[in-house]
Design brief:
The protein has 91 residues and is of the alpha+beta class. The protein has one domain (4-90): 2-Layer Sandwich (GMP Synthetase, Chain A, domain 3). The chain is built from 5 helices and 3 strands, in the order αααββααβ. Helix 2 packs across helix 5 (69-80). The model has no long low-confidence stretch (mean pLDDT 90).
Length: 91
Amino acid sequence: MELLGAILWRTLRELGIDQPIKRAEAIQIWPKVVGEKISQMTEPQFFSNGKIFIRVKSDAWRNELFFHKGELLRLLNQALGESIVEDIVLR
């Protein structure tokens, strides 16, 4: 017997709307993925063309996060369950 969640995601994929939902989810889960300290200094703004755009409250934090983009990208896609986010744009 198939679980309701699996049926729902399969239906969303068949309708072609699973990717937009995952993109919105990337913005929603950002604070949880990056943790409290980073989430206090950042604000996810929008998702476009495989990129999540993040507003950073200071230049020092932007520079620090730049060096950790690869790890943040990996953690974000891991939490999403697939490679949805191709890049993180720090603004």
